Amino acid sequence: MKRLAIIGLDCAAPALVFDRFAGDLPNLRRLMDAGSWGPLASCDPPITVPAWSCMTASRDAGQLGFYGFRNRRDYSYEAYQIADSHAVRVPRLWEILSQAGYDVIVHGVPQTYPVTPVRGAMVSCFLTPSTKSEYTYPGDLKPIVEQVSGGYVLDVEDFRTDDKRALLGRIHDKTAKHFKVARHLLANQPWQFFMMVEMGVDRVHHGFWRFMDPANRNYQPGNPLEDSIREYYRAVDREVGDLLAMLPSDCAVMVVSDHGAKSMEGGVCVNEWLIEHGYLTLKEYPGKPTPIGSAAIDWNKTRAWGDGGYYARIFMNVRGREPQGTIAPGDYEAMRAQLAHELESIRDAGGRVLGTRALRPQDIYREVGGVAPDLIVYFGDLNWRSVGSVGLRTILTYENDTGPDDANHDYNGIFILDERGSRPNGIRGRIDGRPLYDVAPTALRLMDLEPLPGMIGRSWL
């Protein structure tokens, strides 16, 4: 049977892997020289959830029915739910391969908690509440993971902090533990398919981007943390090299990221903007920054509100849909178009248009499941994030309401494919224009299986 190993590096950026740090990453470079590589276009929105499930199921977020970590459960104002493994209602790679009789190892892939039975082994992801949870399948794998890692960690705690030295230590420690467990699983579990995702890359970008990027407003040349991200990438490359050394010579290898990263210019206080433009009314304006979910909203006078994050989700208060809707159904499309136009007209402090994109879900998805936002908004073409809190008394801010954060997500992640001995005459060189939806069909072809009906990507083989 064929073998395939997929190494996921959450948020790995093409500009760093392929250009700026290329000379520091000999193991990734070897894979690139022997195979094909290039930018991997992410999904809408380009964030961890839904991106990894979009990749491994080859479906868009509308088809999956979730648009971020937290999603509206229904059209009430308060009910939200986390998009965990139960939210994914179509088969992903490891489930397809398990059913086809392949032994699989799945390690740290987002939206695998709660764990589900597979033909093989699973260690769940950063959405797991704590290591007290049952985060492995089978259950008796958990004490082995704890022993091998020296105390497993699911994610980097408090990665939005000003204590950068301690944060950097936690990121390196977490990554070392995860790769140690990955190597143990490869050595001790039967497998034909292996997939892991390392979240430390994402965390180091959010914590340290301003120290390395002259384009960031807070960059200081020669600062003592300037090489933090470069050194971390070197460490990850060494870990990848140690893992590659364990793989059979005929095992195909893919290295992928779900999205990229870029310097964050600042934040747009989306609900402050909605208040100023008459879309959102509060019963009482708070005296300090307050999450929108805790604010006293006057729903009878509100037409729209928004969620913060790396992009903005705008929800409209529609009569007959929301409990206290104010927008007549017949006015909905005209008002949505007006709101999108006004959001796209937001200017920076110098009077320049930010370059915001306000997208209708119906225009970007094949179907729209779940409770979708009425508008998906990328402020300043993702150079600015969405700040959801109210009480800030400003539209533009250079502080993040959830803690220090230097980077926003970018539209392109990476892919590297070295088919190695599995297909000696495989594809070679840089290839542009590939979407992350192609990963699952390509992986299935590498394993001598056909892509499933309904997958929207195309195999590269």
Topology summary:
Elements: E1 4-9, H1 14-20, H2 26-34, E2 36-41, H3 48-57, H4 61-64, E3 70-72, E4 80-82, H5 93-99, E5 104-107, E6 120-123, E7 136-137, H6 142-149, H7 164-188, E8 193-198, H8 200-212, H9 228-244, E9 252-256, E10 260-263, E11 266-269, H10 270-276, E12 304-307, E13 312-316, H11 332-344, E14 357-359, H12 361-364, E15 375-378, E16 384-387, E17 396-397, E18 407-410, E19 412-418, E20 429-430, E21 434-435, H13 439-446
Helix pairs in contact: 7-8, 7-9, 8-9
Short description:
The protein is an alpha/beta fold and 461 residues long.
Give a description of the structure:
It is a single chain. With 461 residues, this protein is an alpha/beta fold. The protein folds into two domains: 4-264 and 409-446, Alkaline Phosphatase, subunit A (3-Layer(aba) Sandwich), CATH 3.40.720; 266-404, no CATH class. The protein is built from 13 helices and 21 strands. Strands 1, 2, 5, 6, 7, 8, 9, 19, 20 and 21 form a ten-stranded mixed sheet that branches. It has a four-stranded antiparallel sheet with strand order 12-13-15-14. Strands 16-11-17 form a three-stranded mixed sheet. It starts with a strand and ends in a 15-residue tail after the last helix.
